[in-house]
Amino acid sequence: MDQNQELAVARLRESVHKLGGSTQRCGDLTLMRFLIARSMDIEKAAKMFVQWQKWRTSFVPLNYIPESEIPDELSAEKIYLQGLSRKGFPVLLVKVKKHFPAKDQLQFKKFVVYILDKTIASAFRGKEIGNEKLVGVLDLQHLSYKNVDARNFFVRVWRFVSCFLEKATLEKIVIVTSEEETKEFMRDVGEDALPEEYGGKAKLMLLQDVVLTPLDN
């Protein structure tokens, strides 16, 4: 981090403390994620951090989501964690055709937390998490032919929604729609992380089958 970022983080810590929160267990790079998410606005970032901290404490009291609490979502076998891309980013594959509206919204919310926690942990064990990227793959191409309109609809909706996103968020998302973009995507991910059915060499690995070694602390 440069000097301006270090100063911003220091001020963020002060603001969080004034709001009743604590940054004791968070490193500078983690706090930078909140600043970047709020366009370096310290007060907005502090408010966001405190809200997140309160939510995390109440919603994830064990600091992880037990698989016994999300059986329906796991049984769909729709999320795969494929290791790291060539640039060292975790690669997460979502098979859209296996996803259906959740009947149990609480379980689905816990499932989302489980996905993000495990994906981040698999890539950054023992390492401070900064503003790293996640390579998320939505498998829209493998929907059946009758759903081709659904793929086009998704692209149109994304173009509309993107108008309301902040630049920092928008730059993290790329919708692959052309052959050239597909080739570039495959080069960035790398054949070692890309499953065979997408032109790579990797086997599909279900998220729940990825075993993480516990940290000492």
Describe the overall structure.
This protein is mainly alpha-helical and 217 residues long. It is 45% helix and 7% strand. It has helices at 3-18, 28-37, 42-59, 71-75, 105-123, 148-161, 167-170, 179-189; strands at 79-84, 90-94, 135-138. Strands 1-2-3 form a three-stranded mixed beta sheet, with helices on one face. The chain starts with a helix and ends in a 28-residue tail after the last helix. Residues 126-132 and 138-150 have low confidence and may be disordered.
The gist of it:
The chain has 217 residues and is mostly helical. The protein is built from eight helices and three strands; from the N terminus they run ααααββαβααα.
Mass-distribution shape: globular
Report low-confidence residues grouped into runs of 5 or more: 126-132, 138-150
Estimated helix fraction = 40-55%
Strand adjacency order, main sheet: 1-2-3
The chain-level structural class is mainly alpha
Total helices: the number is: 8
Which sheet architecture does the biggest sheet show?
A: 3 strands, mixed
- How big is the Rg? 19 Å
In percent terms, what proportion of residues is strand? 5-15%
What value does the average pLDDT take?
81
**Could you give the order of the helices and strands?**
HHHHEEHEHHH
Distance between the termini: 26 Å
- How many extended strands? 3
Keyphrases for this structure?
217 residues, mainly alpha, three-stranded mixed beta sheet, CRAL-TRIO_dom_sf, CRAL-TRIO domain-containing protein, CRAL-TRIO_dom
